[in-house]
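Journal club prep — side note

Before the paper discussion, L.F. wants everyone to see what a predicted structure for a comparable chain looks like in token form. Sequence:
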Amino acid sequence: MAWPRLDASGRIEAAAIESGKYLLKWQDWAVIVFYLALVIGIGGYFYLRERRQSTSDFFVGGRSIPFWAAGISLYATNTSSISFIAIPAKAFETNWQYMTNNLIAVVGLMFVAVWIVPLLRRLNLMSVFSYLETRFHPAIRMLASALCIAMQVGARMSVILFLPALAIATITGISVALSVVLMGVFTIIYTAMGGMKAVIWTDVVQVIVKMGGAIFAIGFIIWHIPGGAPEFWDVATANQKMKTFDFSFDLTKATVWGFIFLVLFDVVLTFPKDQVLMQRTLSTPSDKEAGRSIWAFAAIMIPGGLVFYSIGTALFVYYKAHPERLNPTLPIDATFPLFIAAELPTGVTGLIVAGIFAAAMATLSSIMNSVATLVSVDFYERLVKAPDQRRSVLFAEITTVVVGLVGIGLALLMSRYDIHSLFDVSIELAGLLGGGFAGSYTLGMFTRRANSPGVAIGIGCSIVLTFVAWWLDLVHPYFYLAISILLSIVIGYLASLCFPAPQRSLKGLTIYRDAE
């Protein structure tokens, strides 16, 4: 086996240690190949069956997805390779403090299910940014859409591709670059062929695969700890590895107050900003079904989170009992892949690797389809004169491929740098790129006074000021997104007071359903 290590320039290189000892056996490869063939088969099935004639079929599955499948897809999309690898690494290194976000987010999702999602589903949107055009101005829509595309491709796709590639390289000996290319290409194929229906139904399969592998891993680790479950509990509690709540007021740490602040602005007030998640709810048959999909998502979130945090804690206890089995030269994000490669039996290792693929590909396919939706609906169909549906679908398919290739390129670039925790990087990038436009939804849905010039000023100022906070390292990165959203709301509303109030009807565009 070739363990990855960091050289002086920060590049991941191979250190030949016990060469070949942990390479996958044919049974493992059989499981992986079966999984990859299954997802390609799902994409091919919907391609041959649907013969898509409209963008509605490609982008929102003809609005025929049952709520439970949409809810599972929401969870699959939200639990990427970051959850499968980086969260166990974070729990291994620290504790369960980030689990607080899951607990508080469930409460926020209840509000979203009742008030936010049904409002937008009634508008029959494909791009959530269409709302911003109706409520404010086409320029606001296009600006927000462009920022979202940059965030998804630049801040999420590259991380989600690179992280499992690092894990797979650790387990199989395949280079990080080849892992990125293989995973990216397979995802491009089934996403471009099958559209939203293929994305959602492969998500359902992928949740089963990755959760099955993760649960088995927890049981296997605890079983092989000397003393078993009692020892696991005693060591974890003695070292405060399951500490979840930090009620301090230190803005440089991830505290309960920070998570409440984040959930309030990132979930309760601005859930619609995420095209990747919203596209699933928009694929349901009605506003009632859309709300139910959020309830299903919330029901899975807490037990799902417990599984991934428990893996990290179990790994801590295991390696505390067997310190000689932990390679100290590995980056923290390779902790779980190390265990998979070195400790799991033949066949099960293949299942876990398939789970890593599933975790990454579920989110990657969602991002590719959603970005293709935004590029097509918010830009192509606006800029091209009288585009017909078949040309629009072809353009969307091509865009899916291009977006996937760009993501692959960025992941390959990222593999050349030393990054301590990709979980932290993803949080920082989301905060810097994702918060500026998010507050415009709050201003649009919760106020009647907000207007186009004010919202534009709010977006611009929030982005600039958040970058200042990042440059000066004023607060913990987890606060960036919430701060950006708050600034967008406050500055946007105050700036709106300097311009005339909207004159057109706002009926159906705010939570005040009878507002004119």
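L.F.'s comment for the group: Residues 1-21 have pLDDT under 50 and may be disordered. Keep this in mind when we get to the figures.
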